[in-house]
Amino acid sequence: MKVTEQPLWIATKDLHHACEQHVVGIAMASGAPSRVWYAKWLRALYQIHSTIDDSHPETIRRTERLLKDLQDIGIETEDLVEASEYCATLNNEKAIAGAAYVLTGAHLMGGEILRRRLHEYYPTKHLEWDDRKEALGVLSTLRSRTDINEEARNCFQALLYVMDEIAYSEPENTLPLQDDTV
Question: What CATH architecture applies to the domain 7-171?
């Protein structure tokens, strides 16, 4: 069966798993990424959400919350090249919907676990929901689409590239669990 004929979650399963198994994904899931890595991750999410949020209901928009998290972490970061390159491809409804599916799913599902692990030492406003049930409804609508498999895969692939940029642009002394400022 072609990727375009599979249910969305099956069509993206391999890349979703690759993100979870990436060194940055593992560090995030541990609840103890370096603060620099976390700040860069927030910056990349901010870049992407700044591009897609106006196309979606207020309930799933994260731009303002990500900006607050960036301010609260207190680490200045530049825009990430990989996130900027991906944002340049978000120029049609299907690409934007694919990104919204991936990010909304991540923020709602894994994000709830991540928020509990991180909230004591890291800002997590972007993982909080005014109406979680309504956001889940939007996610369900996105998940039921059969025409955005490639676009969702593109988002996961872009996130892998972002993770590579984060992981391999920092000196070794900022690797996760070695940053004693947490």
Answer: Up-down Bundle (1.20)
